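User: I'm preparing a small set of examples for a lab meeting where we compare how different chains pack in three dimensions. I only have the primary sequence for this one, and I'd like the structure in token form so I can line it up with the others. Please keep the answer compact; I'll paste it straight into my notes.
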Amino acid sequence: MIRNIITYPNPRLFLESKPVENFDEQLHILLDDMYETMIANKGVGLAAIQVDVPIRALLVDIGDEEGEQKEDKQTLLEIVNPVITPLDDERISCNEGCLSIPGFYEDVMRYKNIQLNYQDRFGNKKTLNAHDFLAVAIQHEVDHLDGHLFIEKLSFLKRQKFDKEFKKKTKKSK
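Assistant: Understood. Below is the structure token output for the 174-residue chain.
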């Protein structure tokens, strides 16, 4: 089932998500729904809070080497209770967008190399070393679980630009 994505400035986007304790059918349905929602909205990641469920669960699917997402979910990562550790201080700039802030894209600095400890949908513990765009996508989604949006990482001038564009867009839609 495709769920509604809550959008900025909804205050629920700024909630800190709670750890997942029950790895049950309800979680599996949520993850399946999140996948359908992410694909329908042409996203590469989605945090549970974006569909108004404040738990520490997220999806990332950056696709294969060509960026193609697989219909059989081969490239999908289901990440529950994530903990990120930077592997070094190297950072990269990546042009980010967000399904909760449609139509706005900006460059953000993120760690290039991370280690991710997490659980899968069944509660099994996993570790993943992620680099480049995959590392960026994971960090972006984990920020959601911590109640943060990528626009908070923008410089003062870029944030002013965003605020101005957002107000203009909001006025047009009224």
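A couple of notes for your slides: The helical segments are 25-40, 132-145, 156-173. The chain is about 30% helix and 30% strand.

User: Perfect, thanks.
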